[in-house]
Amino acid sequence: MTTLHATPYNLDATGFYFESMEEYQAKSENHLDRYGNKVEELEMQFIDGDDAALFEACRINQSNLNIWFNDVECLQDYEKINLYYLVSCAGYTLSQGLDKLDEPSITESSLKDAATELFDECWLPSIPENVRYYIDYASFASDCQLGGDMTEFEYAGNTYTCTNASGI
Predict the structure, then answer these.
(1) Nearest to residue 102, comparing CAs of 63, 75, 62, 126?
(2) What is the pLDDT at residue 11?
(3) What mean pLDDT is predicted for residues 147-165?
(4) Could you give all domains of the chain from N- to C-terminal order, each with its CATH number?
(5) Which of 35, 69, 89, 102 could form a disulfide with 21 if both were Cys (CB 3.0 to 4.6 A apart)?
């Protein structure tokens, strides 16, 4: 369960905590400052839950809060990782990221490990045994990153690599 806080920009009003879109709507409808004026502008703050980094990357605010509760919060873990990559690394907006959720190919590994696996699967069998000791996997990984083919990123304390970064 995610706990959010609606913090008013109006200094004469207090904020409130909420955990669902329905609770937010109910509390914000009758939210008044100390002079009886309706409070209309609120900043959304992530307080508790597992998706703080995703919430921040998606730039959740009043205008897209319903997307958070209706479309993002219910995603599978791998879809949240994909969405985080799309909005924080690839530069997509929240709605564009949601449309492209199935496009990234993301593995839970470092860039070097992902590049090593790719190299071993594609080219290693064709290289003679006595030459394999000279393969520089770190340089290959660096080339993959510099060429835009692979991107390493951190999410929720884990390291991930998008292996088709240039194709998205």
Answers:
(1) 75
(2) 95
(3) 96
(4) 3-99 (no CATH), 106-167 (1.10.10)
(5) 69
Any idea which residue has 């990123």 for tokens? 153
β-sheet bridge partners, residue 4: 18, 46
**Confidence (pLDDT) at 136:** 96
Question: Could you read off the pLDDT of 112-146 as tens digits, one per residue?
Answer: 999 999 999 999 999 999 999 999 999 999 999 99
Q: Which long-range contacts (CB under 8 A, 24 or more apart) does 85-90 make?
A: 85/151, 85/153, 85/155, 85/160, 85/162, 86/168, 87/57, 87/58, 87/59, 88/57, 88/153, 89/151, 89/153, 89/162, 89/165, 90/151, 90/162, 90/165, 90/168
Reading the block at residue 99, the tokens are 């449309």
The two structure tokens encoding residue 91: 């530069």
How far CA 86 is from CA of 45, 126, 151, 168, in Å, comes to 21, 35, 11, 9
Per DSSP, which regions of the chain are E strands?
Answer: 3-8, 16-18, 42-48, 106-107, 151-155, 158-162
Amino acid in the structure at residue 137:
Y
In angstroms, the CA 84 to CA 65 distance is 16
For the cut 90, the answer to whether the pLDDT of residue 160 exceeds it is: yes
